[in-house]
Amino acid sequence: MSISQLARSIPDSATLRLNEEARLLRERGEPVIHLGIGEPKNKTPINAVLSSAAILSLGDIKYTPTDGIPSLKKAIIRYTEENYDRLVGPENVIVSVGAKQSLFNVLFTLVNPQDEVIILAPYWLSYPQMVRMVNGLPVIVTPEDGTFRPRMQDIEHAVSGYTKAIILNSPNNPSGLVFDEAFIAEIVDFCEKRDIYLVMDDIYHKLVFDGLKVPIAYAYTRQDIENTKVIVVNGVSKLYGMTGFRIGWTIAGRKLVEVMTNVQSQTTSGPSVVTQAAAEGALLGLQSVVDNLCLTIQNNRDVIMQEMAGFNGVRTCRPEGTFYCMADFRAYTANSVELSEFLLKKALVVTIPGLEFGAEGHLRLSFAGSIKNITEGTARMKWAVDPTSPNEIYIGDRRLVRDWL
Ligand code: PMP
Questions:
Q1: Measured from the CA of 248, which atom of ligand 1 is nearest?
Q2: pLDDT per residue over 239-254, tens digit each?
């Protein structure tokens, strides 16, 4: 068998792999607790269900325009105006199969072989792999001060003549932090002066807590949509808990959208009309769905922070948005992959190793699940890593034995 070097070098997604492992364990009847999951538990918003059902019932499901159906694009334009205070036209919008494909299209469109793309650690694990898939070089910038807040001086230091783009994700997966206004203003200005694209991965932009407002990159550019270096990626996956519908979009200048549309036309074509209709329903429907989701997740955040505070020697960064937090386990071990495997095997708790996000020694914990999941999962983790805890416990009639840390 002959497999290309590039394809061979791309690892599978750790989160999807762990999801699969957890699914198999659950299928075998194991009482697995999932603190790895990247999706909220809510039901699909009713408007999304109704509008996709209406399309399905017509029984006429055919190809769609490559860049998205006009009515969804219209809803996205309205969303952009309401939430970003930016008026864009249909020629500035392309709909794709999830924000994942949107980001891939953006990178495919911008990056020449050996161009560099700056990624800020801790980062969403797909960014470096996507950059490599388009033959670019990921340049990882880790804040020198050991926090999870990026600093302009570290970024400026990493920029070279080959830097094509910087990817920014705030609220951030995995840290849960929201980057402040001063930083966003500074980076927009820097990118526009230096002719570097700023790719804003805004997939969590409304999932914020305590009434916090996420600074909008567009607010700090004086350029119009055709000339700004700011590119915005968003979607319905996290906002409405519609991960399975696979709808994301990109807002950019018309030339970029045109090229991305060509790329998409030669790969996947336009997303299914059924799921585009669902996304349209969600965008035009009652937005209290998002507020309720935020409140539930904020409450979950409070619970997980309380549980983690009682965890000896573990420091957990307090999330301001998303449904993830990063817990620093270096007091126990520096090897997050080993720790995560240990927790899955011994305590039947799924966590994601920080190594995958450029933050070794940490675990990413998701609080998107139920309160019971959070309290039981963290309790089992404490039991598993604490050398003074009893050697075995029972979950129902399942006996768990710890014998490593
Ligand atoms: N960006 C980030 C930061 C994410 O966490 C995710 C999903 N985990 C995506 C993009 C992709 O979202 P989608 O499901 O719309 O492809």
A1: 15
A2: 999 999 999 999 999 9
